[in-house]
């Protein structure tokens, strides 16, 4: 009796420890700080979504607007940082092999309807995307495409396939485990590549999809034949990669005599807000911290 109870508890614990969610994003190598419930519509736990017909497929189980947005421009690299219990921990269990994907939708949709566009995916090109993510200490990125100005949700996603040899619909203690978090961004550049949209969550994935039901333990099988679920990556995407953020420790001031910020408009930017960069017309003063250039295009208020 005692032993049995212990075994059950242990397996529940090991499962809980295996899961993952997003801690923060980095813009061009600058950490935007703990985003949970701030600019990330964070779920309350690191548990997966397994019912792919559920409304939680769009932005997980807590899809409500959060107070902040991260300002970005076309060409900026947005790096997502995943963790399971603590920042810089072991990210996700090594058993949780599978693909890594990123989608985008206008924030005005709240993720509902046929509004999602795929910006990036990686499956298995000889190694699993999740193994690459473990090697990059939980970091992967996309480059912001040249979309019209406005508010958008970025939806990075990991699909863990260790129990995906059967669909959740026929065995609800198994099935693929999906991890997605939505990040609120504001694109301040104004490009002309309008998102084609065309995909909904729920809707884009189904239990007859070979990317959702797949046996990663099949003997002799060629894992590079794994098909990442969902559409192909949008032709307007500027790409992405599973790699650690190129952390900016000594930002170089803008070259060519442009190192003095243009006169500000008297407004101040919040901590981690943008405070300068080529073409920036917003605040150049920091309410908190100091304004540091991360690149010619982006300066940010960081703790002094
Ligand atoms: C973006 O460009 C379009 C097309 O030129 C224009 O209609 C729109 O007002 C611009 N939006 C912003 C926020 O600058
Ligand atoms: Cu798990």
TrEMBL record:
Assigned protein family: Belongs to the polysaccharide monooxygenase AA9 family.
Superkingdom of origin: Eukaryota
Upper taxonomic lineage: Eukaryota, Fungi, Dikarya, Basidiomycota, Agaricomycotina
GO cellular component term, pick one: extracellular region
Gene3D superfamilies listed in its UniProt record: 2.70.50.70
Comment, domains: Has a modular structure: an endo-beta-1,4-glucanase catalytic module at the N-terminus, a linker rich in serines and threonines, and a C-terminal carbohydrate-binding module (CBM).
InterPro entries membership: AA9, AA9_LPMO, CBD, CBD_sf
Enzyme nomenclature, EC number: 1.14.99.56
Reactions that this protein is recorded to catalyse: [(1->4)-beta-D-glucosyl]n+m + reduced acceptor + O2 = 4-dehydro-beta-D-glucosyl-[(1->4)-beta-D-glucosyl]n-1 + [(1->4)-beta-D-glucosyl]m + acceptor + H2O
Entries under SUPFAM superfamilies matching the protein: Cellulose-binding domain
Domain CBM1, first and last residues per copy: 267-302
Signal sequence, start to end: 1-18
Location of the protein in the cell: Secreted
Name of this chain's protein: AA9 family lytic polysaccharide monooxygenase
Main enzyme class: oxidoreductase
Described function: Lytic polysaccharide monooxygenase (LMPO) that depolymerizes crystalline and amorphous polysaccharides via the oxidation of scissile alpha- or beta-(1-4)-glycosidic bonds, yielding C1 and/or C4 oxidation products. Catalysis by LPMOs requires the reduction of the active-site copper from Cu(II) to Cu(I) by a reducing agent and H(2)O(2) or O(2) as a cosubstrate.
UniProt KW Hydrolase keyword: yes
Keyword annotations of the record: Carbohydrate metabolism, Cellulose degradation, Copper, Disulfide bond, Hydrolase, Metal-binding, Monooxygenase, Oxidoreductase, Polysaccharide degradation, Secreted, Signal
Any one GO molecular-function label of the UniProt entry: metal ion binding
Biological processes, Gene Ontology terms: cellulose catabolic process
